[in-house]
């Protein structure tokens, strides 16, 4: 145990975490040269396509230090995007040290600071590393001074490297050995292992990823999950190199996997404690605080027969992604589906793609929305995640919406543009801080509903991609909220309903009506698309009817004959309108996600 070091890599998105992990694996000869590839730990197709890390990945490295001693380095590579911060917090709980990676061309960005404070909360030894020093635009000295000024870590303690070329990576390995403390252990001698991640294998059941805090675990041992008291037998265990490599046992301080014939995904909970079934530990490990979903939306299978399969898919995904929440719901337009909670829009998009790719279930997603708090006239306080739960206006005493703290780091030349954009989204300016001569950090309070409506895309386009952002929950504040129902041919479509601030509702309804007009095919009769608040119409678009020229066969003769045919056609269309129903295509529901507020 003296020679075990558990550490993770934390950074802002695209600062080179996965590339550094590749070099560490390469320099410790963990993987043969033939099997080595770029972004080795990013095993999902989605991660490789988008160039981002979505899931944390563990790998065990064998390293011989300059002192001649052999060391076991357990590395956990983490995501950088704010939507996957829960993955980062879980990996930090399994480590004693963290490499804080900062891009030598970009400097400190929003998620750099957020992850730094997360690591401080977990009392980790933080090693600052300045990456990409091989680039012509790199200024490592400036970034080191920035780290000292903003984070309070001495510039002299910063390591410099190029993860791409391998320059300086051997110094990082030596720093991990010398600076990261040996594993923290639990005073109890009984087995305690923290489940920090898991995934489902169709042949072997649930595979749990564990960090052993005390005692040891071996093949054939009877183990107990402390939250459910269920007992299982260890069939196989081992560590990651990065493929699963079998071993006879895992001892205190080690990180690895355990396969114990757990077939029901509900039995394996992330953050649970594994202990010996005979000599059980008295207290469980603290585990993790549950992730609080920020964005909600409905997922419905296009084919209703796939509903049970979709439930299984969500349960297996939840095992692999503990921040995903879901409950069953039904819609008159879309049938049976699930109301899902996510940490952000990117998280929602990734989960949708994973369900469609990994489980072959085509989905329709409804408009994303957030949790609102409503005080009714009878004094009851309710929280709603779905526009269908919104009470009638006469029963509402007050409405509240969640506000987020928002920190934006941007070059000084874009500060005016950033403030203007934030004010357009109902943001309240708090303060500004200088990071260096060229960049500032602005802090705002902003409604979450505004934050999820393409705010990040607009921020990137207005600052030419130079701005970065981080956000956190602050509080619920009173706000004038209304529910807008979208009506098609006089029938409400519940999946297109949304809740908005009264100042934004008419504009959003108008844009939605215009979009639906483009996407809904023309019928043999005129179709009205309306946005309604209570009984008041705030937006309307009409899809004109397809017309047949019924008077084409009339040539010459009296006008009354033509008039008679036109009146007959008019009556027929009127009758069709009363009994006809309009099929709303899937694209119409998906287009709701792309409406800019």
Low-confidence stretches: none
Radius of gyration (Å)? 29 Å
Main beta sheet: 8 strands, antiparallel
Instruction: Sum up the overall morphology in one term.
Output: globular
**What number is the mean pLDDT?**
82
Could you say how many structural domains there are in total? 5
CATH class of the largest domain: Alpha Beta
Percent helix range? 25-40%
Question: If classified by CATH, what would the architecture of the largest domain be?
Answer: 3-Layer(aba) Sandwich
Strand order of the largest sheet: 11-10-16-7-8-15-12-13
Structural class label: alpha+beta
Strand content: 25-35%
Number of beta strands: 31
* Secondary structure tally, helices: 14
As for the CATH topology of the largest domain, it is: Rossmann fold
Distance between the termini: 55 Å
- The fourth-level CATH homologous superfamily of the largest domain is P-loop containing nucleotide triphosphate hydrolases
Topology record:
Layout: E1 4-11, H1 17-27, H2 45-50, E2 57-64, E3 70-77, H3 85-92, E4 97-103, H4 110-121, E5 125-131, H5 140-151, E6 159-160, H6 169-179, E7 192-201, E8 205-214, E9 216-218, E10 222-225, E11 231-233, E12 236-240, E13 244-246, E14 249-251, E15 255-259, E16 273-276, E17 295-301, H7 307-320, E18 325-331, E19 335-342, H8 345-358, E20 363-365, E21 372-376, E22 381-384, E23 396-411, H9 415-424, E24 428-434, E25 439-447, H10 448-451, H11 455-462, E26 468-478, E27 481-488, E28 491-492, E29 498-501, H12 505-519, E30 527-533, E31 536-543, H13 559-579, H14 586-591
């Amino acid at each position: 145990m003296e020679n075990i070091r558990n550490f993770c890599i934390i950074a802002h998105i695209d600062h080179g975490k996965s590339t550094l992990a590749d070099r560490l694996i390469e320099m410790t000869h963990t993987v043969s040269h033939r099997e080595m590839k770029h972004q080795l730990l990013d095993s999902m197709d989605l991660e490789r396509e988008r160039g981002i890390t979505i899931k944390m990945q563990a790998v065990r490295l064998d390293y011989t230090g300059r002192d001649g001693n052999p060391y076991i380095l357990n590395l956990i590579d983490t995501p950088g995007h704010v939507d996957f911060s829960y993955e980062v917090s879980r990996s930090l709980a399994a480590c004693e040290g963290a490499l804080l990676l900062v891009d030598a061309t970009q400097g400190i960005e929003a998620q750099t600071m957020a992850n730094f404070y997360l690591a401080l909360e977990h009392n980790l030894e933080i090693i600052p590393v300045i990456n990409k020093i091989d680039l012509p635009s790199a200024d490592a000295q400036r970034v080191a001074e920035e780290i000292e000024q903003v984070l309070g870590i001495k510039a002299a303690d910063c390591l410099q490297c190029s993860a791409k070329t391998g320059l300086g990576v051997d110094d990082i390995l030596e720093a991990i050995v010398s600076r990261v403390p040996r594993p923290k252990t639990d005073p109890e001698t009984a087995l305690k292992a923290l489940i920090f991640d898991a995934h489902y294998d169709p042949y072997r059941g649930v595979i749990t990823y564990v960090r052993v805090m005390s005692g040891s675990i071996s093949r054939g041992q009877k183990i107990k999950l402390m939250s459910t008291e269920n007992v299982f037998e260890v069939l196989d265990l081992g560590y990651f190199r990065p493929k699963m490599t079998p071993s006879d046992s895992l001892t205190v301080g080690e990180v690895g996997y355990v396969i114990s014939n757990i077939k029901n995904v509900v039995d394996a909970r992330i953050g649970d404690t594994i202990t010996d079934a005979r000599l059980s530990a008295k207290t469980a490990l603290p585990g993790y605080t549950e992730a609080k979903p920020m964005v909600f939306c409905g997922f419905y299978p296009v084919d209703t027969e796939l509903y049970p399969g979709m439930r299984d898919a969500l349960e297996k995904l939840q095992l692999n992604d503990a921040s995903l929440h879901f409950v069953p719901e039904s819609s008159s337009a879309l049938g049976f589906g699930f109301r899902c909670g996510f940490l952000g829009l990117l998280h929602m998009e990734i989960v949708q793609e994973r369900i469609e790719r990994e489980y072959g279930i085509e989905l329709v997603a409804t408009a994303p929305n957030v949790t609102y708090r409503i005080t009714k006239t009878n004094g009851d306080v309710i929280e709603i995640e779905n526009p269908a739960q919104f009470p009638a206006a006469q029963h509402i005493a007050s409405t509240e919406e969640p506000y987020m703290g928002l920190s934006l780091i941007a070059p000084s030349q874009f500060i005016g543009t950033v403030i203007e954009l934030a004010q357009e989204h109902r943001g309240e300016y708090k303060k500004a801080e200088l990071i260096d001569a060229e960049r500032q950090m602005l802090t705002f309070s902003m409604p979450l509903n505004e934050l999820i409506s393409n705010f990040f895309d607009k921020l990137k386009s207005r600052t030419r991609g130079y701005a970065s952002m981080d956000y956190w929950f602050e509080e619920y504040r009173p706000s004038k909220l209304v529910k807008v129902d979208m009506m098609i041919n006089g029938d409400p479509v519940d999946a297109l309903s949304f809740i908005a601030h009264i100042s934004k509702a008419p504009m959003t309804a108008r844009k939605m009506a215009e979009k639906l007009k483009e996407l809904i095919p023309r019928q043999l009769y005129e179709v009205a698309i309306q946005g309604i608040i209570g009984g008041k119409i705030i937006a309307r678009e009409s899809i004109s009817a397809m017309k047949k020229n019924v008077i084409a066969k009339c040539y010459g003769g009296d006008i009354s004959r033509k008039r008679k045919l036109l009146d007959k056609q008019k009556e027929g269309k009127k009758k069709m309108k009363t009994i006809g129903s309009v099929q709303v295509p899937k694209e119409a529901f998906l287009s709701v996600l792309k409406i800019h507020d």
